[in-house]
Specification:
Blueprint: H1 6-20, H2 29-32, E1 52-59, H3 73-86, E2 94-102, H4 105-109, H5 112-115, E3 120-125, H6 131-138, E4 144-148, H7 156-163, E5 171-175, H8 181-197, E6 199-203, H9 209-219, E7 222-226, H10 228-237, H11 240-253, H12 262-282, E8 286-289, E9 296-297, E10 299-300, H13 307-315, E11 319-321, H14 326-339, E12 344-351, E13 356-361, E14 378-383, E15 388-394, E16 401-408, E17 412-422, E18 435-441, H15 445-451, E19 458-462, H16 466-475, E20 479-482
Parallel strand pairs: 1-2, 1-3, 3-4, 4-5, 6-7, 6-8, 8-11, 17-20
Antiparallel strand pairs: 9-10, 12-13, 12-19, 13-18, 14-15, 16-17, 16-19, 17-18
Helix pairs in contact: 8-14, 8-16, 10-12, 11-12, 12-13
Length: about 475
């Protein structure tokens, strides 16, 4: 099956919203045959609110010497507009609040009000002598991606120096004839937008106000406390029929029900529907649960373990975060903004004999490719350390490129990339957490473990997101560190 694009996601989302009125707990199209319950509530995976606001500015002068004296600016713009049209699926969650050919810096200044609230500016370089126009664009002090194809002008020779000067602090360049990279250009803007609109509900009794204030100050993200009493009320409000229907979907989709009883799966599904309902009521996108802390004392203090519910939220394009790990929650939002895919929280262990790092956690997410994509195979297991609860043990795709990262504080991201070489999730693989992948890293494995800091948890996402992280980090004043380099 070919990958679903953003436009088709939005079309299916509308259908999902209609179905949700009568089907309050759908899992995913790949398991139930129906659109997911949460899809109709999202602008794009990870975002409930508004579209990404981008200013698209074409920079050019009439009758230039380069690329040719007879250049027709209107035809140049029409060419690029045709390429944007071909890529419209990639821009389904983008509103181009400005879409204009600009031939003088005064025209940029006249658009100040329109540019004030944009997430970013996409500046397409058409001809030589656009330096003053670009200076006016950069003076808006908005994240700016410059797209310059070959022959557009000689200004590229100064872009390298520009990017390290103060006036280029919020600028990056794409020097390429590949117009598909126009879609790449908006991904850092999307991540900035998602983080600013995100709301995280944190089910814990531990203090986190200092971290929440820092996240709001840096990114605009809202992190608020969720009381256990509200979760219990929501759990009781879920009808038994809805919980049984959700249970049936998970059981039918599973390769096997191993340790848990069907009744335990039923309780987990009832809690899953309750968690989604609370997110809906709050207009939130991420749920974090202190499942090994203040929500666990010899046995879980909730009606069931939240693992299946958190996995389900990830399937829906929302976010479910283990152990109230707010750093992983922020990284999850970032990954969804950059790629449209969820993250996999893991505790690592190193195997230098196989030149790999094993990333393990009991909670797996079947829809690692994103909402509406086919689900990976999974078994329903208990939480390994506790021998109770219900988790999806997911068999991720061998050969897939991955990026692992963690946001440290508000000004540093530690990351590495690699490729999945094994997914040891058979019943014979009984050490460590249920869902596991072995990753052969890009770089030096010994250097990676010697450099390791900041605890165990990281988020892992499908795809090599190095370039996206580089641009995002520059725009947000974040130090990006490759731990394996």
């Amino acid at each position: 099956m070919s990958p679903i694009n953003r436009r088709d996601f939005l079309k299916l989302s509308a259908a999902g919203g209609a179905l949700h009125a009568s089907w309050p707990g759908l899992l995913s199209g790949s398991v139930s045959g129906l659109p997911p319950a949460g899809a109709g509530k999202l602008v794009s995976p990870g975002c409930r609110g508004t579209k990404v606001k981008v200013a698209k500015i074409y920079m050019g002068l009439p009758e230039p010497h380069w690329p040719k004296p007879t250049l027709d600016l209107d035809r140049e713009v029409a060419f690029y507009e045709s390429r944007f049209s071909r890529l419209k699926d990639e821009f389904a969650d983008v509103e181009f609040v400005v879409d204009r050919l600009v031939t003088s810096p005064e025209e940029v200044a006249a658009m100040s009000d329109l540019l004030r609230d944009v997430d970013g500016i996409l500046a397409v370089h058409l001809t030589i002598w656009i330096g003053p126009i670009l200076e006016a664009v950069l003076a808006r002090k908005k994240p700016t991606m410059i797209f310059a194809a070959p022959y557009s002008g000689h200004e590229w020779t100064g872009y390298g120096g520009l990017l390290v000067r103060e006036e280029g602090a919020l600028a990056e360049c794409l020097l390429t004839s590949d117009t598909r990279q126009l879609a790449f250009a908006v991904r850092p803007f999307r991540a900035i937008h998602h983080l600013r609109e995100a709301k995280v509900l944190n089910l814990t009794t531990r203090p986190f106000e200092e971290y929440a204030a820092a996240a709001r100050g840096k990114f605009g993200t809202e992190i608020v406390r969720l009381e256990r009493s509200r979760v219990l009320r929501a759990y009781e409000a879920v009808s038994d029929a809805d919980a049984r229907a959700e249970t049936g979907r998970w059981l039918r989709g599973a390769q096997r029900l191993v340790e848990p009883s069907e009744e335990e799966v039923h309780r987990s599904c009832r809690l899953a529907l309750a968690l989604e309902r609370i997110l809906d009521e709050e207009g939130a996108t991420v749920m974090a649960v202190d499942c090994y802390g203040s929500m666990w004392d010899k046995t879980i203090t909730l009606p069931a373990y939240p693992c299946l519910g958190l996995s389900r939220l990830n399937n829906l394009g929302l976010g479910g975060i283990c152990e109230s790990d707010l750093r992983s929650a922020m990284t999850h939002i970032l990954f969804q903004g950059l790629s449209g895919k969820p993250g996999f929280i893991s505790d690592p262990t190193v195997d230098e004999g196989e030149n790999s790092i094993i990333l393990a956690h009991c909670l797996g997410t079947p829809n690692m490719d994103g909402p509406q994509r086919p689900a990976h195979p999974y078994k329903l297991r208990t939480v390994m350390e506790r021998q109770e609860g219900v988790v999806p043990q997911v068999e991720m795709r061998v050969g897939e490129r991955v990026t692992q990262a963690i946001l440290v504080g508000m000004d540093r991201i530690q990351y590495f990339t690699g490729r999945i070489v094994a997914a040891p999730v058979g019943l014979e693989h009984d050490r460590g957490c249920r869902t596991k992948i072995a990753v052969r890293i890009d770089g030096d494995l010994s250097r990676l473990w010697r450099n390791w800091s900041q605890g165990l948890h990281r988020q892992t996402c499908y795809g090599d997101l190095t370039r996206e992280l580089q641009v995002f980090s520059k725009f947000k004043g974040i130090t990006l560190v490759d731990e394996a380099a």
